Amino acid sequence: MTLYSVFVAFCVVALLLVLAYIGWWIYIHTSPFHVTVNRIPGPKYLPIVGNVLEIAGGLDHLLHTFQIKWAQQYGGIYRIFVGTHCYIPISSPELMEVVLSSQKTIDKGMSYSELVPWLGQGLLISSGDLWRSRRKLLTPAFHFSILNSFVEVFNEQSRILCGIIGDICQSFADGKGEMDVYPLITRCSLDIICEAAMGTKINAQTETSDYIKAVYRIGQVITEQFQQPWLRNSTILSLSALGKERNQLLKTLHGFTEEVINHRREILKKKEDIEVDDKETGIRNRLPLLDLLLKASEGGKVLSNQDIRNEIDTFMFEGHDTTTSLLSWFLYVMAMNPDIQERAWIELQNEFGDSERDCTQEDIPNLKYLECCIKETLRMYPSVPAFERTVQEDLQIGKYLIPAGCTIGFLILAAHRNPEIFPDPLVFNPERFFQDEVVGRHPYAYVPFSAGPRNCIGQRFAMLESKIVLSTLLRRFKFETLSNTKPPIIANQLVLKSMNGINLVVSRR
Ligand code: HEM
Fold first, then answer.
1. Is ipTM over 0.95?
2. Ligand 1 surroundings by CB, under 6 angstroms
3. Atom 7 (ligand 1) nearest CA
4. Among 1.10.150.130, 1.25.40.10, 1.20.120.1200, 1.10.630.10, what is the CATH number of 31-271+285-508?
5. Which of 127, 190, 182 minimizes the C-alpha distance to 153?
């Protein structure tokens, strides 16, 4: 090949690229879809890759770009392209209300696909009539009287957690030591949800098993998968080390759930009334979700074993990761704000004195300041910082038309840190949730549990669990930070986590 022919080939390729770019430029300025979405403000984007280059990098960078940089630059609604897919992040309460309150926009977005191999078409992911029928079936599992029956579990597991933290404290010379509370709380939340969902004790706080390790690890594996888009290809995934590990974890997770389902089915077959004492499992007067599902399954006619497994796995995931995030961030903000921790402690002293008795449903209404602290934690550190819906039919929100096929992303962290609604948003101030302060605030300005027909089904469970676990911890321990501890690096890892742990100095009261 002569130098001349190389030059000609280069010119031809360059010309083709220029023509392709011009063709693309004309297309995005004339096609009805692009003309419509380009009315929404947003960063410039490239052919094929869209805005991917700007969001590539660590998970902390991703969160920062979506929830802080672009949300501040463009406001309550903006438009980006992930590859060629149009993605519309929103954080304005008025716009979120339109979408979340509608029965038409209940289908989830593209990011949930990584969860399908684990959770199948469980309540979190399913859509349309399947979702409607399951939601109706599962709602009674969160009835007040059933939640009440789990108070004992919340207390029991909180006491075990206190024992473990107390032992760690004692291992330090002055009874006061630094520890990452996140893994400790994860195991406590796992024990709680396992008993509530499956009626089974796994003793995650005191023992270890392949199942416990697998539930702990699967969230990390799915997050790692998100970060490597080439692993969306099932062949590449199945050949990769991560894909192999994921398959092994899924085998363990599904195997365990199936075993519990079969065992519980056998027990229930022997009983006429599943709500009476259950000596075989040691769980009295409780109706775990699994019993409700088995009862409704009509021997497989209404729900197959796999349907039941999907729902149980969904509750195992949604019910432990989210509350762990909330409980850990709560302890962090307490440590950072000693005056507020002291005020919460005084409220607990007034209710419980120095007694070590359990926290009961009767105590809960008296723990108002604690509740405001929990709500303020979920404002600053929402466990689910973002979620999605797919637009199936063209949708008008505010002055913008969102064409079918787009994904709407709800930026909960950005919404909760909007200075126009929450002045000094980075200041932890539980008084924002005092009764007088809430009056007049837009009902969709604060939505940690989402809102509308597809809101969190476990909201009341989570709030009750948190109040019991946190009151038990605060009554017994004081939480502080070291002046040289690095501040947490926040990132969306299925839930809002700190990439460098939640390291606190803990001592007995
Ligand atoms: C602090 C604790 C929690 C927070 C902040 C939280 C938040 C949320 C949010 C924002 C959603 C909507 C997600 C989306 O649309 O993609 C959701 C859905 C859901 N949550 Fe929670 N959650 C918490 C605890 C729980 C617990 C303890 C359970 C179970 C016991 C649970 C079960 C579910 C389920 C099954 C869904 C799907 C509901 C549906 O689509 O119909 N969550 N949660």
1. yes
2. 108, 123-124, 135, 314-315, 318-319, 322-323, 326, 383-384, 387, 448-450, 454, 456-458, 461-462
3. 449
4. 1.10.630.10
5. 190
